[in-house]
Amino acid sequence: MPPVNAPYRPEGLTARPLHARVDPDAVAHNLARLRKALPASGAAPRLWATVKADAYGHGVRRILPALRGADGLAVLHLDEARACRRMGWQGPVLVYGGLYSPADALLLDASGLHLVITHAAQLEWLAQAPLSQRPAVWLRYAGDIHHTGFAAQAYRAAYEAASAMSRRGLIGEVGHLNHYARADEPGGVDGADALFRDVIAGLPGPVSTSNSAALLKHGARAADTQWVRPGLALYGASPFADTSAAQLELRPAMSLHSQLVGIQRVPAGAGVGYGGAFTVQQAMDVGIVTCGYADGYPRHAPTGTPVIVDGVRTRLLGRVSMDMMAVDLGPVPHACIGAPVTLWGAGGLAVEEVAASAGTIAADLLTGLSARVPVQLADAH
Ligand SMILES: *Cc1c(COP(=O)(O)O)cnc(C)c1O
Question: pLDDT band at residue 5, thresholds of 50, 70 and 90?
Answer without folding.
Answer: confident
